[in-house]
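Incident log, structure service

09:12 report received: a user says their structure output differs between two submissions of the same chain.
09:20 pulled the input from the user's history:
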Amino acid sequence: MDNMDKYFVYPNDVDNFSFDWGRLALTCGPEMNDVAQFSAGVVFVPPGQGHTRHNHPSAEEIIFILKGHGEPMIEDENGTPETRVVGPGCTVFIPDSRFHATHNSGLDPMGIFVVYSPTGPEKMLQDAPDFRLIPANELTGD
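09:34 re-ran on a clean worker, output below:
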């Protein structure tokens, strides 16, 4: 990767985090391209799959639906879950430390662009029991 390649990154250019529910390709972050204030990437979720309820202490998250349909859940400040059906073009904001989950309720794979601010929550994903690293050279097109 030459010096400018770090500014133009595709999901298959980087190692991916794989889980039983899908995978995450971190395309922006401190290790990838010296980003200091946030990390970002693309999440791929197969039909019928999704990640369980969790939160990111001291971090906000933005979820932008690129393709597919699903049901993200966000708990309100009292812990009451709110679920909506969303599709391409929808932005979902997760406040700092708020519990949330996402489920692909559609028939097609979901593609989701995620941003964490500040950077860091993506590192905690590596502690998940179903975490596997897929090296970039083992990935095929999506």
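09:41 both user submissions now match this output. Likely a transient worker issue. Closing.
09:42 reviewer note: The mean pLDDT is 93. The chain has one domain: 13-133.
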